[in-house]
Amino acid sequence: MLIVFTGVTLLKAERDLKRGVLKFSASLTKPVIEGMKWQAPALSCTGSTMVGQITQASLAMSAKQMDLFAEGEFRVDVQTVSKFEITRMELKGKKGKGFRHVVNFEARFVGAEILALADAWILAVGDGVGTMRVDGELTEVTEPAGAEA
Predict the structure, then answer these.
(1) What is the DSSP letter of 41?
(2) How many domains does one find in the chain?
(3) pTM reported for the whole predicted model
(4) Which domain holds residue 18?
């Protein structure tokens, strides 16, 4: 199963002695909603935790501005992509006049080399956005169903 996330930003990368986590933010698009088998959030939804996780996943992320990252693509294999949360964001400079929904999620990994690659991405791309292809197995988890805030 392949899902393509757009407007992706790598927010944070952290690791302890055993494992690490990459935290991302992406635009909530119709292909993501359909690929994850979610229902579209209501226009009034300000926040929601979504069910599902992607296991045994491969991530391939490319920056919108291609020359920013020397390696071209950020490619890693992770154990899970999970903890999907939808948030309503006001559009910049349009307070009260427009919004968009974003999905925040995290990817868990084991290898130390992934953290080095993530740090290189953050230094090179910073707040820049990109596109991420996630290939793995979609599974159900026992998180609460899309409870709206």
Answers:
(1) P
(2) 1
(3) 0.83
(4) 2-139
